[in-house]
Amino acid sequence: GQNIDQPTEMTATEGAIVQINCTYQTSGFNGLFWYQQHAGEAPTFLSYNVLDGLEEKGRFSSFLSRSKGYSYLLLKELQMKDSASYLCAVRTLPGAGSYQLTFGKGTKLSVIP
Amino acid sequence: DGGITQSPKYLFRKEGQNVTLSCEQNLNHDAMYWYRQDPGQGLRLIYYSQIVNDFQKGDIAEGYSVSREKKESFPLTVTSAQKNPTAFYLCASSIWLAGVADTQYFGPGTRLTVL
Questions:
Q1: How far apart are CA A84 and CA A35, in angstroms?
Q2: Which of B16, B23, B36, B86 is 20 to 30 Å apart from A41, CA to CA?
């Protein structure tokens, strides 16, 4: 099976930088996704990594190290609206023609003034 | 505007009743999915469908049923056999390329409460 770990909660100050880590143990790794979810709303897609390295999208960046089973989401110039849960999800290929997307429990980020 | 719609947003039902949650997408995506989210838990896959008239059980399919008669629609029925149905239900869709699911996009969700 898959095991995905993220910190449960984090707090950061407006304007600062925060890094949310995600570690995973899985076989047949085929990509890692980050989603943002505001309370009571649906998750929205932020980023996708399948190869090692850093993917940058504006204020958000995501990093992947497949050998270490590790990813992080980096949020720069934090804004109050960034207060949300951040979900790490790992895609695997357990067999030909099928797939699994397994979500972590999410990290609740609170941005304070 | 393309997107995924779920209705209703809030749903209340009495214990012992079946209820159907709607999910419609106009993104022309091949695959559709149903997840359940409980407080403090990750999203858990209930059912998914890669193509019309075909669907597969996810990790927690017991007490649920689905149909996929049209590409755009993937309704979920929560039956009376589901022991703990109160939860936030999320529908998603994605392109399906060469046996691999692409990025999933989510609908707004339905919050089901069993009284």
A1: 10
A2: B16
